[in-house]
Amino acid sequence: MEEEKNIAVSLTEETKVEEGFHILKFQNETSDKQVVEREVDTSFIQFHFNVKGESKFLFNEGRYELPLAEEKSLILYNPQRNLPLNLVLGPKSWLISLVISIKKFHALFSEEANYISFLSTENKDKKYYKDSPISPSMAIVLNQVMNSNLTPTIKSLYFKAKAYELLSLYFNRAEDANVEQCPFLSDEENILKIRRAKDIVIARMAEPPSLQELSDEINLSLKKLKEGFKQIYGDSVYSFLFDYKMEYARKLLDTGEYNVNEVGLKVGYSTASHFIAAFKKKFGTTPKKYLMSLPATH
């Protein structure tokens, strides 16, 4: 297999849960895409959970791409051929993967195999790709894994518990139908509120609400909004919004359809000088110099 360039990711961490079962954490805090590669043979099934940002999986030496959006999960399994992990991690992206041997996976669900479609006799030799939303209860576990700060002696045990919890939640068929029974209900509601807060500040980025107004609008206390937003998105509300606005501004400049003043106004800067200073703080160059550095499109 030919070598492709392998760019170091800000944080790549692999923990062996037990024989034939690994949990991988990928955290790209840079403004550039990062590439991750790892061999995975046909005896393994892969679960990928995109906690933040966006990623894509490359197959057949990059000829086929499978994107994975924020708050989405993906199962990959192909008994006919190896599916090496060839992952392009977007800027400011977090991803958690479980890689588990089919043998171990079957053993976990020996009593339940009939409920899981791709484990049925007629399907067990077929390849399987499925993406689905990350539920709020899964998001809690993923963020606990992402933000864990544990001593080495405890870490393996903690990750083992969380990996099994994640699989249980993933295959919990009754979760939606029987939400009253769910022990995570209050946390689930809070996570949905915080996701809504993120959508609100993005939609109104030119004139964002104050934290108190945001807290009132989503009906969540200011303390829980601040703590929950930091836990889920890894940043404070306004720091997250600043990064989002600058990336959005850069994309607008890339189109070549707007001048610096117009872009500044679109992302909420009434004076060009404030926008220029903010852009320079984020990217280390002024919008004008950035525009000049773009290849000519006309």
Task: Please tell me about this protein's structure.
This protein is α+β, with helices and mostly antiparallel strands. The protein is built from 10 helices and 10 strands. The strands form 2 sheets. It has a 6-stranded antiparallel beta sheet with strand order 1-2-9-4-7-10. The chain has a 4-stranded antiparallel beta sheet with strand order 3-8-5-6, with no helix packed on it. The longest helix has 19 residues, at 152-170. 27% of the residues are buried. Mean pLDDT is 81; it is low at 1-10 and 174-185.
Q: Give the overall silhouette.
A: globular
Low-confidence stretches: 1-10, 174-185
| DSSP strand tally | 10
By helix and strand content, what is the structural category?
alpha+beta
Summarize the main sheet: 6 strands, antiparallel
Radius of gyration: 21 Å
Topology:
Blueprint: E1 11-18, E2 21-28, E3 34-38, E4 44-52, E5 55-59, E6 64-68, E7 72-77, E8 85-89, E9 93-101, H1 102-108, E10 128-133, H2 136-146, H3 152-170, H4 185-203, H5 211-218, H6 222-233, H7 237-255, H8 260-266, H9 272-283, H10 287-293
Antiparallel strand pairs: 1-2, 2-9, 3-8, 4-7, 4-9, 5-6, 5-8, 7-10
Helix pairs in contact: 2-3, 2-4, 4-5, 4-6, 8-9
